[in-house]
Write a structure and sequence with these properties.
The structure is a homodimer. By secondary structure, chain A is of the alpha+beta class. The first copy, chain A, folds into three domains: about 10-90 and about 125-285, 2-Layer Sandwich (BirA Bifunctional Protein, domain 2); about 300-415, 3-Layer(aba) Sandwich (Rossmann fold); about 420-490, Translation Initiation Factor IF3 (2-Layer Sandwich), CATH 3.30.110.30. Helices cover about 35% and strands about 25% of the residues of chain A. In chain A, the strands form seven sheets. In chain A, strands 3-9-10-16-13-12-11-24-27-23-22 form an eleven-stranded mixed β-sheet, sandwiched between helices. In chain A, α2 (about 40-60) packs across α6 (about 180-200) and α9 crosses α12 (about 395-420). Chain A is globular. β5 of chain A pairs antiparallel with β5 of chain B. One zinc ion binds next to β12 and β24 of chain B. Chains A, B: It holds the Pfam family HGTP_anticodon. Chains A, B: It catalyses: tRNA(Pro) + L-proline + ATP = L-prolyl-tRNA(Pro) + AMP + diphosphate. Chains A, B: It is found in: Cytoplasm.
Chain lengths: ~500, ~500
Amino acid sequence: MGNSLTSRSQDYSQWYNDLILKGGLADYSAVRGCMVIKPYGFGLWENMRDVLDRKFKETGHQNAYFPLFVPKSLFEAEEKNAEGFAKECAVVTHYRLKADPDNKGKLIVDPNARLEEELVVRPTSEAIIWNTYKNWIQSYRDLPILINQWANVVRWEMRTRLFLRTAEFLWQEGHTAHATKAEAIEETKKMLDVYADFAEQYMALPVLRGVKSANERFAGAEDTYCIEALMQDGKALQAGTSHFLGQNFAKAFDVKFADKENKLEYVWATSWGVSTRLIGALVMAHSDDEGLVIPPRIAPLQVVIVPIYSKDEAMKARLDAKAGEIIKELRAKGVSVKYDNDDSNRPGWKFAEHELRGVPVRIALGPRDMENNLAEVARRDTKEKLSVSLDGISNYVADLLEEIQQQMFNKALKFREENSRNADTWEEFVRLLDEQPGFIYAHWDGTPETEEKIKELTKATIRCIPLDNPQEEGKCILTGSPSAQRVVFARAY
Amino acid sequence: MGNSLTSRSQDYSQWYNDLILKGGLADYSAVRGCMVIKPYGFGLWENMRDVLDRKFKETGHQNAYFPLFVPKSLFEAEEKNAEGFAKECAVVTHYRLKADPDNKGKLIVDPNARLEEELVVRPTSEAIIWNTYKNWIQSYRDLPILINQWANVVRWEMRTRLFLRTAEFLWQEGHTAHATKAEAIEETKKMLDVYADFAEQYMALPVLRGVKSANERFAGAEDTYCIEALMQDGKALQAGTSHFLGQNFAKAFDVKFADKENKLEYVWATSWGVSTRLIGALVMAHSDDEGLVIPPRIAPLQVVIVPIYSKDEAMKARLDAKAGEIIKELRAKGVSVKYDNDDSNRPGWKFAEHELRGVPVRIALGPRDMENNLAEVARRDTKEKLSVSLDGISNYVADLLEEIQQQMFNKALKFREENSRNADTWEEFVRLLDEQPGFIYAHWDGTPETEEKIKELTKATIRCIPLDNPQEEGKCILTGSPSAQRVVFARAY
Ligand SMILES: [Zn+2]
Ligand SMILES: [Zn+2]
């Protein structure tokens, strides 16, 4: 049975939505721009979150929790940050509903319950957190503060897409406070590396590490570092950001500390975050026309075993017993495995279903194979099938999961390399964008005006200036002005 | 150095606040009624959450995530639920701020960005979830749905207290859907047992399991089951609730399924939750005038080792080396341990600090003890100190942690037993409430009117009708009408 997915070549956007919805990751909700993350999608997020959380703790961070609401007067305090988010803020103005006198059983907002000061639903938490840090920091002994928060945030986007851009999303936001500029910059880069390692080693997603141009910087940051990934349609996706905030928030909230010489100094800040958007990146980077392809290290389910029952009850018992053995061995190795022996669906239907959901490895156990001490092992990424001896099959599968992880990364890296090109003229730049989209390395004169103009003309933006970027003299593709390095352009999600 | 805590006898409320604030669990925030959960408090919550999450998964539940906002029209759908929460709803009415034309650098709510339909910030998620389940349930094959969500919720309480009652709080809410009434009731009770086991085995908190009277029932439930704990001031605290929702939400959202005979039936529902309020219960049940007392199984830090440095550098190195050994052995046993060798604070200051924070076991390693192959082990719960041989000290400490866990439970249980009394007359009831507050077992005529009247007169409420309550004929303490059983009264948080 087919699962009637739209193919990538037919309609890439619809393919993406089909995978999210039919693959069981998420569903639309009754709230404009908000989605429901279904158990399978949330299981994926839990696995990603657990790895990241461990990495944060290993690098000395602790979790905490700050209020959902930001009073408007605090929200305003750091002006650039406020400007950057003002246009997409959900605002709480009242704290009570009451019975509608004209409409039995209905409710209206109680006009007598207006808040004295409106509350912004946090689009990001710098303001509320720095207003708190003010009370926690007096001396250099109180520094550094290395805190992370797992939370929901709200940005009222006009055009939303499942996972990639939703009005509410889940994320983590690290907020650190330091005594020196150098230490804050080091933290910013360290967390960028944590993100990059996570993306590459767990999500099998190769990423460019770079720094944003001024136009693309986080509102209120001195520098925004980012990781950028390439999707199968040649568009870029920003997968994580780490911001060096300078002393902007310390000044806005008047957060000073006494240094060792008892001199008062403003505190240096960073913030860094990744969100459920990563799930969108994962889907678009790896999946195919049969469904999701999920890297084993973060897959909610790594292995499924499907018995091919015959009418022979004794054989059925033998299949169940053998499956039980394999499951026990795999679980002892820390592999997650499900036995799909539900009689009400045919094996072919199950195969399609597990392909759609991107389970990395499927084992089919049938009577004939059983007689020959074999099982059929199918890997989701390449769709190869192999007859494997039942002796030592759990070792085989555990190794295969690692191989799949590695090959998915290699495949994505090869794709990125094949879709990274230099453009030396405006004509070439425009032609590549339309005909062979991907990362385009091109010279730029370094001005925000030129970047803005290029964006207007082509919808392409500077994704980043890669770290350790080779220096190379050239001329800006738009203005012809001198340039000292190529930067990475792409159209982006 | 003392930590200048208010004592329980001096001012119980202030003692509680001191412990939360000075013990590093939480802080006030700039948002009315909302608090900041600090790293130490959040570490405690993470430990509690992880245990509960494992128990939920072991009982077949999966996590998912539903939107923060509930459109007003959905919120209204289940009338009793809507009535119950309408008076404490934060309401989003606008989705944009704009520059204040009269006040440079300030923002105002953009009057042109009014939502067509107001959004309620979820006080609980039955409405948004049942509106979603409607799309997920067609047939008996789609049932049961066993989903849990970890989330923040908002209830605009007028009088708030750290952890016990805050405008925003963190919780988990399970929402399940079933084909039969019996199965839903079984689920309701099963989750009550999960909560009770968690409270008793991990929080060392003995709880009564019972069912609420109609007055105290969750808005929209047919029956509310609860666990009730007794605090050191003799007031009760509801520590968790599990609701049998009948078909109320299925009817409100028109959620039907085709049964095996293809007949359409309304779905049966449950919901159940515990929140960060549990941290308040933990503090008030166990702590003392020196600070927090935290049960080892959920303590963010179980053991602290404090070296007593002398001026002898060689001895300092020996102390550090021995501490390193003990730490390694304890960690291998899964015990969390910190080496507090910060030179800038004196040992006595550190002892007071770790007592304040409720670290279950402190090991002091000093030169003289070292010469005798001993260390001083202090347990936080009883404040006993013992000289313990360094040989096998990690085994000793691991056992001691279990003993502390058990003794904390026993102590709390003894306290509850000593503060549970029968009252047979109105005079006795009132006298006990004022002079020996605790759980009062008394006869009640079963009417909401009498319960309401008792509450008005004494501020005591029916905490629960215990499960498997012994049947005993008697007369209502207020009205003298016949009663078939005693119920549990108390003043409550
Ligand atoms: Zn970038
Ligand atoms: Zn109760």
